[in-house]
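Human
Can I borrow your eye for a moment on a structure tokenisation matter? Give me a protein, with the fold worked out from its sequence. Write it directly below this note and I will take it from there.

Assistant
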Amino acid sequence: MSGEDPLSSTKNADDQQKSTPSGKIRRALGLSFLNTVFGRIGTFLTGILLARMLVPEDFGAFAVALVALGALLAINELGVSLALVRWPGDPREIAPTVTTISFLSSCVLYALCWVGAPAFSEALGAPGATGVVRLLCASVLIDGATAAAAQFVNREFRQGTRLTVDMSNLALTTGVTVALALADYGAWSLAWGRLVGNALSAVLLFRLVSMWPKPGFDRKQARELVAFGLPLAGASLLVFAMLNVDYVITGHLLGAVALGLYLQAFNLASWPVNMFSVVIRRVSLAAFARVQDDPVAREALLARFTALLFAGALPVCGLLGLLALPTVTTLYGAKWAGSAAALQFLVVLGIVRVATELGYDFLVALGLPGRTLWLQGIWLTALITLLPAGALLDGIRGVAAAHALVAVLLVLPAFTYAVCRTGVRARVLGAAVVRPLVGAALLTAVVLTVRWYTEPSLTQLLLGGVLGGGVYLAVVWPMRGLVKQLG
């Protein structure tokens, strides 16, 4: 008879499971999802409150500042921090060099931003936004300082740490923003809230991961890091341009009010990306990197991530697009009704972004960052060509429709082709999304029926959401075990 304690044996087995790669991925996904849900709900409720306290012009000015900040963040640390995730040895060996490159680049970029802010704001149709641009873009300095610590969290699947940091950031940002908005600070309240939240949560991140910024420089490491990171920085800049060229065109051709309405629509349409894609991306790069040398395992993992993403994102996109007007007016009030015209098309872009961002991480994990550059370049070129025509023909609805057209007819097929060139079979990816697509088709039929018999209202929103969502859930319910299969 064995003298082994069965309870101890069970506990050891559970601990062993948690320490395996698959156990880490599942646990990280769970914490990442919890983080995203709490964060999105908090941001969502704050957005509703601020939309009723501020006016479209305020959001237009803040949108100009967001465009500027996004451009800086896209190239801020030259892509070198992502090397921490793939580094075969101890990531702390290269952390000092990563920190030095990241922070120096952020200082240079912020200096350029300070000088160029007046001309940039004028070009986007909001000359009064210069001060807001300069204030918000100070966040790039914080990003440079935290680059190494943030990627260390991703590498080690420490999503519990990220949960703590992000929730603290949300609480601080919300508190400061709402207080200043009540004091009638307009767009400044949004910028100050974001900056204060980022600064204090950065200190918390350093403390939790015990990785305070320690500059250092190794010339050999720097060459390797820059060689790896520059294609990623270039791709990130192209992604930024692709996602923000619509803001630039809208602000320049249609003005600050139209830009504010478009920003609100884009924020709503980004919910699938923020709720699902962000969750997966916090673990997908590291997960793909672990199986990068096993073609069968990496194909299976990509298919499971794809199925999981589409199962969650498709119903949200469908309901937002089909019920755009009652959604906007119920949440934000009648003064934002113009956003609905853009929202119904931007949700199409949202689902394509979910797919392409996963493909981007897959290619990067396989050591093919350069392959993403031509994909982003094609996307940006098409948008620069078509979005101005859309804006002139049909305002913000035309901009959104052109965005969706390019995403579906050009970008999604191009990314699929690039991923399949690595040995992934298209039929495997197609099979992974069959059930979500069937569910989305049935959801669409149900919601269109509800729209036929009801006027845009809270009643239509609730009926369409409950009935359409119920039909969709019935179709995809058998997929509920996907998370357990990851890893």
User: Anything to note?
Assistant: DSSP finds 20 helices and no strands in the chain. Residues 1-20 have pLDDT under 50 and may be disordered. Residues 369-420 form the longest helix (52 residues). The CA atoms of residues 61 and 129 lie 5 Å apart.
